[in-house]
Amino acid sequence: MDLAVTVVRTALNAASYVSPGLAGKAAFRLFRKPRGRSRLRPDERPVMDRAEVGEIAVGGGTAISYRWGTGERPVLLVHGWESRGSRFATLVTELLDLGLSPIAFDAPGHGEATGETMTIVDLRDIITALDAEHGPFETVVAHSLGVTATFVAAQERGVRAERIVAISGVPDFAYLVDRFCAGLGLRARLNRELRGRIERELFPGETDIWSRFSVPRTGTAVGASSFLVVHDEDDDMVDPAASRALSASLSATLGDRARLVVTRGLGHRRIIGDRQVAASVRDFVVSGTPARAAAAPDPSPRTAAG
Question: pTM for the full model?
Answer without folding.
Answer: 0.88
